[in-house]
Amino acid sequence: MTDTQDQTRSRTFSWTDPALTAARLGTTSGLEMLRAMSDSEIPAPPILQLVGATGLEAEEGRVVVYLPAAEFHYNPLGTVHGGVIATLLDTAAGCTVHSTLPAGVGYTSLDLMTRFIKPVTVKSGLLRCEGSIISRGRRTAVAESRLFDERGALLAHATSTCLIFELPQA
């Protein structure tokens, strides 16, 4: 048995109360909200802070999320856990749908169909996850997302169906 104390690493993070950001949902469009996050005018959601996302770009119908692959994302096999990859794919797809919504309208994911293509490790470098709209109707939207490594190789992709609904008025 080896002494793991010499190999122990630690990580600390903090987040802002998500209710402060959620309060803006009814008063701003999805694109305005995502751009405010991108410009650090409002904080990113706690999940992005938890996984260590470092950037977000948004335009109507397209979102890009950045994340440096790190050891703390690893599973016991020594690769980035599929749940972390799925989180990025879900975030990019969902935020892409959000980028098309007017003030007072929300969404929720109904499904996420994910395909893992290549293993992801710290050698993958800065991950780039791009989301785009496939189809947008009045009640549902379908978006896709693709995860690339620092060199541009496709690592995983997903499609997601989202339900679109009116937010309750405060």
Features:
Thiol Ester Dehydrase, Chain A; alpha+beta; single chain; six-stranded antiparallel β-sheet; 170 residues
Summarize the structure.
The chain has 170 residues and is of the alpha+beta class. The chain is built from four helices and six strands; from the N terminus they run αααββαββββ.
- % residues in beta strands: 25-35%
The whole-angstrom Rg is 17 Å
Helix and strand string, N-terminal first? Answer: HHHEEHEEEE
The CATH superfamily bears the name Hotdog Thioesterase
- Tell the overall outline: globular
Explain this structure to me?
This protein is of the alpha+beta class. It has one domain (18-166): Thiol Ester Dehydrase, Chain A (Roll), CATH 3.10.129. The chain is 22% helix and 34% strand. It contains 4 helices and 6 strands; from the N terminus they run αααββαββββ. Strand 5 and strand 6 (154-166) form a beta hairpin. The longest helix has 17 residues, at 82-98. The mean pLDDT is 94.
Describe the secondary structure blueprint for this structure.
Layout: H1 18-22, H2 30-38, H3 46-51, E1 55-59, E2 62-68, H4 82-98, E3 105-116, E4 126-136, E5 140-148, E6 154-166
Antiparallel strand pairs: 1-2, 2-4, 3-6, 4-5, 5-6
